[in-house]
Structure formats: structure tokens, C-alpha cells
């Protein structure tokens, strides 16, 4: 049973009991409004509850005018929908259309208009949506452990991918099904959505660390996909391929590190100097293969720059640790 279901049950029960204790007519309506008000995050809850409350007030006013002049006929409800729904959408109260309809249809069912009826509907709105907001703000499930687990899984998958890339550079006939790439993509997307929910639950001093992390991995995954595309063009074993493979071996270790060590970047710069000192290709085939390997190095450099931008430098971490010690 999800936490949202439990919160919805609690908010519904509290709303019904409160409305009944205060002697408000149709206390079950307060429970229904509470069900509509419970949401997945605190910020979203605050926005949707506000939208539903003001949409219901605006809808009530329009319905009172229509029912007063046109009476309580079924076709009047169609007129209400044709008029109210576009107005509520333009007023940016789209999330409150269903809630306002529940309130308006209840007034229509009573076939009576008075200030007391209007006040009753407002009271039910305050109680139902109020308890939904209260329950949302009191508790939201913690996602820190899930985010850490996703991070660990993503980094392990990246490490496997780089190992497979190194193996392919050493042996162009190496077979790999690429399932780790698909799994990494799924984990990154799941992490991005989870981090977004966590951020929306932080009303004050929001921490964007996790959002930045999964954004970084998303960017890097795009570079990895392009590197794999380049790697598919290397159909022959070459001496330069072995040197490139050493880069990915090192990267498979660096990706598991929480900080940016810079070891792969240093090796990459050495490899670039090595490429510059090499003699020119003796055939078109060699030229194409070496060109592909050079492109692979440039893509790898882009990948590393993304990590360098978002990861904490190793020297800074060592300084922090010495201060803590």
C-alpha cells in the first residue's frame, strides 16, 4: 500500500469527522474533496489545492448566476460547462475544474440557492482541501536511500559499459548485447524524476544536489551513446586501439569515485600528444580508423568535461577531510 493511499485515507476520515462534528450538511462531500486534494509533493499540493479552492469559488459564483436566471434544468449544466471550463482554464485554474464541478453539481442536486448553501460549500472546501494540505505537509516519504541506491547502480552500470568498450577496442569482434546501456538509461530517468519530487518537497532552502547529479549522468549518457556509435565503426584491431582501451579501463574505475580524480583526463592528453607524433596514415582504411579513434577521444573529452563541471575535485575533498580530521 502506497503512502499516498494512506495519506488519502487519513485526510478523508479527518475531513468527514470534522464536518460532521461541526454540523455541516453532507459531511461526506468534505471527504470527497480531501481525496481530490492529496498530491505527490508539498509544492504541487499547495499549487493544486489553491487552484481547486479558487476554481470552486469562481465556479460556484457562475453556477449561482446561471441557476438563478435559467433554473435547475439538466441543459443548464451543459451551459455551465461550456462557459465555466474555458474561463477556469484561462484563469490558470485547470487543476480545479473537477473539484469545482463536484461542488456545483452538489448545489444543482439541492435545487435551492441561498447564502447559507454558498457558505456550506465553502466550509466543505476549506475542511476537505485543508486536511489534504495538512496531511501532505506533515509527512512525505524520504527518498534519500533510494537516490543513493540509484546512484550506485548507475555508476556500476557505467563501469561495465566502459569495460565493454575497452574490450571492443582490443577485439573488434567482441560481442556485447548492450543491456547495461538500456538499464542505465532507465535508472537515470528514474533518478531524475525522484530527485524532482524530492526538490518539490523542500519548501525552504531546496537542495538541488541530486537533480544536478542525475542531469550530469543524463548528459554523459548521450556522449556514451555517441561513443558507442563511433566504436561500431572500428572493425579492425589497431595499436592505437589498445591505448584507447586503457583510457576506458581507467574510466571504469574513475566513474565509481565520488570525486573527479582527473586521471583519465591526464591520460587522454598524453594520448592526444601521442597521436600528433605519429606518422601519417599509409592507406585510406588506416586513415578512417585512426580518424574514428580520434573522434572517440574528443567525445571522451566532452564526457570528462561534464564530470569535471559537476563533480567535486579530489583535492577539495582531501582538504575537507583534513579539516574534519
List the helices and strands and how they pair.
Elements: H1 3-21, H2 27-37, H3 42-70, H4 74-90, H5 97-110, H6 115-138, H7 144-170, H8 179-200, H9 209-231, H10 239-254, E1 259-260, H11 263-277, H12 284-310, E2 312-313, H13 314-324
Helix pairs in contact: 1-2, 1-6, 2-6, 3-4, 3-5, 3-6, 7-8, 7-9, 7-10, 8-9, 9-12, 10-11, 11-12
Provide key terms for this protein:
325 residues; mainly alpha; two-stranded parallel ribbon; 13 helices; elongated; disordered C terminus
Can you put this structure into words, describing what you see?
Its main location: membrane. The structure is a single chain. With 325 residues, the protein is an all-alpha fold. The chain is 78% helix and 1% strand. The chain has 13 helices and 2 strands. Helix 3 (42-70) packs parallel to helix 5 and helix 11 packs antiparallel against helix 12 (284-310). The protein is elongated, with a radius of gyration of 30 Å.
Unreliable stretches:
316-325
Give me the number of helical elements: 13
- Structural class of the secondary structure composition? mainly alpha
The percentage helix is over 70%
Distance between the ends: 44 Å
Number of strands: 2
Order of helices and strands: HHHHHHHHHHEHHEH
Rg of Cα set: 30 Å
The description of the largest β-sheet is: 2 strands, parallel
- Please indicate the percent range of residues in DSSP E strands (runs of 2 or more): under 5%
Shape: elongated
Membrane topology: Multi-pass membrane protein
Keywords: Cell membrane, Membrane, Transmembrane, Transmembrane helix
Subcellular location: Cell membrane
Transmembrane segments: 53-85, 124-141
Amino acid at each position: 500500500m502506497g503512502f499516498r493511499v494512506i495519506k488519502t485515507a487519513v485526510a478523508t476520515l479527518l475531513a468527514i469527522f470534522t464536518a460532521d462534528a461541526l454540523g455541516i450538511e453532507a459531511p461526506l462531500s468534505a471527504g470527497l474533496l480531501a481525496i481530490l486534494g492529496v498530491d505527490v509533493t508539498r509544492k504541487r499540493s499547495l499549487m493544486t489545492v489553491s487552484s481547486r479552492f479558487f476554481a470552486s469559488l469562481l465556479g460556484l459564483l457562475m453556477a449561482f448566476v446561471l441557476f438563478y436566471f435559467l433554473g435547475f434544468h439538466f441543459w443548464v449544466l451543459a451551459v455551465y460547462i461550456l462557459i465555466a471550463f474555458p474561463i477556469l482554464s484561462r484563469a490558470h485554474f485547470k487543476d480545479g475544474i473537477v473539484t469545482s464541478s463536484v461542488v456545483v453539481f452538489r448545489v444543482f442536486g439541492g435545487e435551492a440557492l441561498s447564502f447559507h448553501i454558498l457558505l456550506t460549500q465553502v466550509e466543505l472546501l476549506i475542511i476537505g482541501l485543508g486536511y489534504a494540505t495538512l496531511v501532505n505537509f506533515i509527512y512525505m516519504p524520504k527518498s534519500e536511500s533510494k537516490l543513493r541506491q540509484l546512484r550506485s547502480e548507475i555508476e556500476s552500470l557505467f563501469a561495465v559499459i566502459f569495460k565493454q568498450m575497452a574490450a571492443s577496442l582490443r577485439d573488434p569482434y567482441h560481442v556485447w548485447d548492450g543491456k547495461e546501456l538500456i538499464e542505465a538509461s532507465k535508472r537515470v530517468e528514474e533518478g531524475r524524476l525522484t530527485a524532482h519530487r524530492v526538490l518539490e518537497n523542500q519548501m525552504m532552502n531546496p537542495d538541488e544536489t541530486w537533480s544536478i547529479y542525475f542531469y550530469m549522468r543524463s548528459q554523459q549518457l548521450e556522449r556514451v551513446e555517441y561513443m558507442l556509435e563511433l566504436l561500431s565503426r572500428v572493425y579492425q584491431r589497431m595499436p592505437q586501439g589498445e591505448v584507447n582501451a586503457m583510457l576506458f579501463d581507467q574510466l571504469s574505475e574513475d566513474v565509481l569515485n565520488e570525486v573527479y580524480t582527473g586521471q583519465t583526463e591526464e591520460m587522454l592528453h598524453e594520448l592526444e600528444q601521442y597521436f600528433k607524433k605519429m606518422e601519417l596514415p599509409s592507406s585510406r582504411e588506416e586513415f578512417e580508423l585512426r580518424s574514428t579513434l580520434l573522434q572517440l577521444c574528443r567525445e571522451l573529452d566532452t564526457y570528462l568535461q561534464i564530470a569535471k563541471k559537476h563533480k567535486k575535485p579530489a583535492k577539495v575533498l582531501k582538504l575537507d577531510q583534513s579539516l574534519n580530521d
